[in-house]
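Quick note —
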Amino acid sequence: MTTGPLFQAPSGDDAPAGHHHYKRPDSPYERFMAEEGIPVHHGIGVRDTRELELGAWPRMGGRGIFLQLEGLQGVKGMYVVEVPARGALNPERHMYDEFFLVIEGRGTTEVWQEGSDRRQAFEWQPGALFMAPLNAWHRLVNATSSPALVLVANNAPPIMNIYQSRRFIFDNPHQFTERYNAQDEYFKTVDKLEIDPVRGRAWLRANIYADIVNCELPLDNQRAPGYRRIQPGFWGYQQDGAAGGFIAQYPIGRYSKGHFHRSGAVVVCLQGKGYTYTWPREIGPQPWSNGKAHLVRRQDYVAGGLVAAAPGGGEWFHQHFGVGTEPLRVINFWGGPVPAWGVNDEQESEIKAGNLFSIYEGGRTIMYPEEDPYIRNEYRDLLASDRMPHQMPDALYQPK
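Predicted structure written out below.
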């Protein structure tokens, strides 16, 4: 065990001990990223993950890059990995949850438990969403002549920050058989919509979703007129009250109401193109009118791009806009459970639905009549410049 410099107490009563300025040390997860030896992308988002410069990743057997987006620290880990053509990533298991979204390519995932001769396998393609069972062996195989690109989200940061042991996390024999025991139905697709027991919205439970880019989404209307949405659930997770992300779509020529929630959510563009505005909640719902426009941050994206919805380390407003010739389809990409529990960490037994109530009524939403006029005017002008239809009726901006 190594030690640092020895402490020396002040020589008199006037001089205080210690540094006058503190510098935060790197977290165990941040040290893990550095040890892996691949690039790390910082910021609030990425226009297109295909444009990222990947680095050789010996442990994984492919190429990759970490995404350390603002607001994700200590909550969610993300990376992009390339599965080599006619190759495979190295098998791995780990004591954190992990979810995969295929950006490009086709292949197969193999899953098995330590000591078992039985391997389960399923195929994937662009738009596939699937998970790796907790601490089960798995590997991604690419049988095609082109590399595959996969976006991954996990809850590795809190696990690594707590245990601080690579051996415990990557070489742990424990099997979570109550969650995965090579059941025949574990990786079967499901098309039966249920009701989310907390929110009452559409909920679909499976562990592989074959194509979330083109699947049918039921009408929801909460974030915008014509807004469509399902919440994917995953077998083996107690999600009553825990957000498992969602897949959503905005009609052409419409945009979401502004809203806020805790940091950690990452919105990935699946179809179309658009942009997101995000700004600190404390500057209010009308930052342009209040002279605070310089504090507003914008991220543009196309299919394969992404943005941290609330990057400020707290509850930031954010608002999503589709400006393409297709509807804007996105996924709020879940990385697995985190220590906080309940809807938006609320502890009350019953709370108002944040999307349905204004910030002035105890909700979390800026209703269209309450938003900054700059937002609607800019959106109208952007659509007009590209000769795109504007589908936001004036009636939406009239107080009710």
